[in-house]
Write a structure and sequence with these properties.
This protein has 134 residues and is an alpha/beta fold. Helices cover 26% and strands 25% of the residues.
C-alpha cells in the first residue's frame, strides 16, 4: 500500500530488486506506518541550525528523535547528534532504524527496520531495554 503512490519507474525497480533504488523514502514510509499503527503521533523536524530529523515522537513520556537510514552509512546522522547534544532540548535517547544489527552507542540505539513494529506508545516501560541486552 505504501508504494502505491510511487511512479511506475520506482515500482519497477522495487519489483526487479534493483540495487540502484534509493530506498530511503520507502523505509521512512514503512517506519511511519508502523509508528502510527502503534498509536504514536509522528512529527518531522527541520532546522537550519540543527538539521532534519525524520521523526520525533513521545516515547515513555519523553521526546525521542528517530532517523531512518537505507544505506550502509547509517552511523552518520548529524541532525540526530545535534539534537542529542543540545542540552536545551533535554533529549536522553534517539533511535536509528536501518539495515543493521541491534547495538547501542551512547544515547543512540541502532535497530533493524523491522523493529519499529515493536515500539508501542501505550507501554509504561521501555520495550527494548527489557528484551534486548546491549
Amino acid at each position: 500500500m505504501l508504494t502505491s503512490v510511487y511512479g511506475m519507474n520506482t515500482k519497477t525497480k522495487i519489483l526487479n530488486n534493483d540495487n540502484n533504488l534509493n530506498g530511503g523514502g520507502i523505509y521512512e514510509n514503512a517506519v511511519a506506518e508502523e509508528l502510527i499503527s502503534k498509536g504514536f503521533n509522528v512529527y518531522y523536524y527541520n532546522s537550519k541550525r540543527q538539521g532534519e530529523l525524520d521523526f520525533v515522537i513521545e516515547y515513555n513520556g519523553k521526546l525521542a528523535p528517530i532517523e531512518v537510514k537505507s544505506g550502509k552509512d547509517y552511523t552518520k546522522h548529524s541532525a540526530l547528534n545535534n539534537c542529542l547534544n543540545n542540552k536545551e532540548y533535554g533529549v536522553d535517547e534517539g533511535f536509528v532504524f536501518a539495515n543493521c544489527n541491534v547495538s547501542k552507542e551512547g544515547k543512540i540505539s541502532y535497530l533493524p527496520i523491522y523493529m519499529a513494529s515493536f515500539m508501542d506508545s501505550k507501554k509504561d516501560k521501555d520495550y527494548f531495554a527489557h528484551r534486548i541486552v546491549f
